[in-house]
Amino acid sequence: IxxxxxxxxxxxxxxxxxxxxxxxxxxxxxxxxAPSPTxxxxxxxxxxxxxxxxxxxxxxKYRSENDPTLKLEKPLLLVDTPGHGKxxxxxxEHLNATxxxxxxxxxxxxxxxxxxxTGSSSESGLADAAEYLHDILLVxxxxxxxxxxxxxxxxxPVLIAANKLDLFTALPAPLLKTSLEKEISRxxxxxxxxxxxxxxxxxxxxxxxxxxxxxxxxxxxxxxEEVNVPVQVVGGNVxxxxxxxxxxxxxxxxxxx
Length: 257
Ligand code: GTP
Ligand code: MG
Known about the structure:
By secondary structure, the chain is an alpha/beta fold. The protein contains six helices and six strands; from the N terminus they run E-H-E-E-H-E-H-E-H-H-E-H. It is found in: Endoplasmic reticulum membrane.
């Protein structure tokens, strides 16, 4: 009997983030070379793509230019997940159930985040983007802290893709980074207060835990390195009058292969 190689064994990246941030646009661009018109996603979708020949995989770093294996196609899977608040269980469930998970691409609409911290975060996309990201990072942290082996689980690197930088209202990646860190600190506080009022009878709540370092210090993505979750924020755009700018995201993917 002929059996196709199971596609699940391919290196896999989860594409996750708030609704409307551009996940499906990004995945169709990576798949077909041009983004397709999208609808709100209602279920996860795995798509097989190939690393562009111009992007080097980390595993090929020491190969000579003449090495014929360099010319081989480097396939990988992208799993597009729905960002709608009621459908986020799909994304969160995939975090622990994806074989050969190489990383997470968290797509944020950088134009939905205000540039001043004085504006109310709940009116913008910031609160939503930070809350979802907080929950994902907490799952990854828990995966590390509950791991059986003393070495802990493999790295799960996270790329925060600051998308829609073609729009002039978009927040540049370094500012998006500090805005998210600040807002995640706030989410952490709110969750901790929720735990107190929920009382000790709520085992589920006890289980949730505190993201990053304890104490008074504010949350920083850097703190995630201690649980094998390196986080990087990189800007780009899928659409735009001057065409897409996604090379740095491909470079990040290549560096994890
Ligand atoms: P859900 O499926 O609901 O989770 O949303 P999604 O993250 O898949 O968003 P989607 O790819 O459907 O894009 C939402 C909208 O953003 C679409 O109208 C896209 O055309 C638009 N969009 C995506 N990327 C960009 C970009 O880089 N720049 C601009 N200007 N618009 C973008
Ligand atoms: Mg979608």
